[in-house]
Specification:
This protein has 20 helices and 25 strands. The chain is 37% helix and 23% strand. It binds fructose -6-phosphate (F6R).
């Protein structure tokens, strides 16, 4: 949560910073701020509550000159969204400015000490404590800014990605990270820093991903210097950025979410590319090949994730159990990390995360690794923390996902899980050749089938108008489509703020059926499967209680058409791949309902794309 961006070089910093903030706004959007050192060596800090647009409006007439600056877009943790709590924060003398993403857990102790020494605080934030502390160390140790940052970071407990600059030293920007992402872009005589590469990509493709507890000193005319908080000097490892600017634009769509829904035929092709051979007869995942035996002899697979990624994990459970005959447990990372889970060295832990930065998932990985388990990551953001903290893994290759509600990352995660299950099952000999080949063939047809669903978007939009003002929704599914019921409900609640619950269809009788009356819309996935007849009975039970049924059915299903109030027809596929199709109309339905309600689809209230706090 929170986005940070910084620049030092020969260009005017403000336009770069403000553009960067817009790109990072998906990470947090309750307040924003910028600090600049102008050519006369004056440090100016401007802040505004609300979106980055508000900040832009409020600074129009002000001095925005300077070739060094830092900026921040906030998702509040300590202290309500307000101008005062917005970053950058300044030190007592006003000579240091800092932006921060993360949480300083022991801020209260440090603050109490500083108050005793006469320090006063403007805000309620942990970040202000950190910058005051850095200044205090600088004064008491009579050291330079780098040393003061290094000493301070040895004393703080928590997570941070920070950038600090100093009024008397406009040629230097100091950045550091621990458990919060930070990318340094390397240009010719200029540096860019940001929470992810999106603000950097249009200026340079050369980047350094800072590791935990590393501090980078970025000096205008010098090579970047990286030193750990324990004072070990590191050789900077410069990587080539795999990102394309067009991924960061809406490309004619009104929202990133809609663009990302429509990208899915392409993103799934990218996800399979190079992994399924041209003949369509073989699946290879390099992350598995190198550790084949681990998977063949695994006693158990534990899948850990949060939110939408957790829903993908549930589908993974069905796939690994059906194809590989390995017992699977799917865990919320946030619960797993605070239980005393039994993890064996022969377990495989699969961590699924779009951002690769989710704090709870990272902590769960640490726990799993400490128990000796082999940890495999399924992530989208290249170079993020999860891929760097796992033994092996697969990227989902679906491109930058900007809409806060995850769509294309979800289908890519399910595709990777399907390919993993196929590859492991083939190695283990737990799948017949026919089943293996049929599944690969069908998987390759999924992109074109998704295209067919996207072509009926207009119909889904019409349907959305009927239900825009519903107060509640129930989503039902069985088997492979049960996680899709959960995902459909989550999509609706997060962007439209309508209360929605997902259930396994058969569980309805054990409680939720009491909610059904003629006001209650029930979205039910009723595609062809081994439990089709059972789902049919569930629809009858809902209709008997006058519920309004919106059924997702296969093309040509006249039986359910005669029963349900509304049907959305999707192409048929094999049962294990159905989630990849049935989720698409639910993404579109949620999207259109939210647009009808005039919600801010790409930046729903209270949410942020990357949850880097517990
Ligand atoms: C829902 C959504 C969240 C994320 C969750 C995990 O649309 O986006 O529920 O799925 O915060 O995030 P990652 O996958 O980045 O670990």
């Amino acid at each position: 949560m929170c986005g940070i961006v910084g620049y030092i070089g020969f260009r005017e910093a403000y336009p770069i910073l403000i553009k960067g903030l817009h790109r990072l706004e998906y990470r947090g959007y309750d307040s924003a701020g910028v600090a600049l050192i102008n050519p006369q060596n004056r440090l100016s800090v401007y802040k505004a509550k609300g979106r980055v647009d508000e900040l832009e409006k409020s600074v129009k007439e002000l001095d925005l000159s300077g070739t060094i600056g830092i900026a921040h877009t906030r998702w509040a943790t300590h202290g309500e969204p307000s101008n005062i709590n917005a970053h950058p924060h300044c030190s007592q003398t006003g000579s240091l400015a800092l932006i921060h993403n993360g949480i300083i857990e022991n801020y209260a102790v440090i603050k109490a000490n500083l108050i005793q020494k006469g320090y006063t605080f403007q805000s309620n934030t942990d970040t202000e404590v950190l910058i005051q502390y850095i200044e205090y160390i600088k004064a008491t140790h009579t050291c330079d800014l780098f040393k003061a940052v290094q000493i301070a970071l040895n004393h703080v407990v928590g997570a941070y990605a920070i950038a600090v600059m100093e009024k008397g030293n406009p040629d230097q920007l100091i950045v550091a990270r621990k458990s919060s992402p930070l990318v340094v872009g390397i240009g010719d005589n200029e540096f860019f820093i940001a929470s992810d590469a999106s603000p950097i990509v249009e200026y340079t493709h050369k980047v350094i991903y800072l590791e935990d507890e590393e501090i980078a000193v970025l000096h205008r005319d010098q090579e970047p210097k990286i030193v750990t908080i324990s004072n070990i000097e590191k050789t900077p490892e410069i990587k080539e950025l795999e990102m394309d600017l067009s991924q960061l634009e809406k490309g004619g769509y009104p929202h990133f979410m809609l663009k990302e829904i429509f990208e899915q035929p392409e993103t799934l092709k990218n996800c399979m590319s190079g992994r399924i051979n041209v003949e369509g007869t073989h699946v290879t995942l390099s992350g598995i090949i190198d550790h084949k035996d681990k998977f063949i002899y695994a006693d158990r697979i534990l899948i850990i994730a949060c939110g939408t990624s957790w829903h993908a994990g549930l589908i993974g459970e069905y796939l690994f159990e059906e194809f590989c005959r390995i017992p699977v447990e799917v865990e919320y990372a946030s619960e797993f990390r605070y239980r005393k889970p039994v993890i064996h060295a022969n377990d495989i832990v699969i961590a699924i995360s779009q951002s690769g930065e989710t704090a709870d998932s990272l902590a769960a990985i640490e726990l799993a690794r400490a128990s000796g388990a082999f940890v495999y990551g399924i992530c989208n953001v290249v170079g993020s923390s999860i891929p760097r903290n796992t033994d092996s893994g697969s990227y989902t290759h679906c491109g930058h996902e900007i809409g806060v509600a995850s769509t294309k990352a979800f289908t890519a995660q399910v595709t990777v899980l399907t390919m993993m299950a196929l590859a492991i099952a083939e190695e283990k000999g737990t799948i017949t050749k026919e089943h293996y080949l049929e599944t690969i063939k069908e998987l390759q047809h999924i992109p074109s089938k998704i295209k067919k669903i996207l072509a009926i978007d207009g119909k889904i939009k019409e349907l959305s108008a009927i239900f825009t003002y519903a107060q509640n929704f129930i989503y039902l599914g069985r088997g492979y489509d049960y996680p899709i019921a959960l995902e459909g409900a989550l999509k609706l609640k997060e962007i439209s703020y309508i209360h929605a619950e997902g259930y396994p269809a058969a569980e309805m009788k054990h409680g939720p059926i009491a909610l059904i009356d003629n006001e209650m819309p029930v979205v039910i996935i009723a595609t062809n499967s081994t439990v089709y007849e059972k789902v049919l009975s569930n629809i009858q039970e809902i209709k008997a209680r006058k519920g309004r049924v919106i059924a997702i059915v296969n093309e040509g299903d006249e039986v359910i058409k005669a029963l349900a109030d509304y049907c959305i027809e999707i192409p048929s596929t094999i049962e294990c791949l159905d989630p990849l199709l049935s989720v698409i109309p639910l993404q579109l339905l949620a999207y259109h309902i939210a647009v009808n309600k005039r919600r801010d689809v790409d930046m729903p209230r209270n949410l942020a794309k990357s949850v880097t706090v517990e």
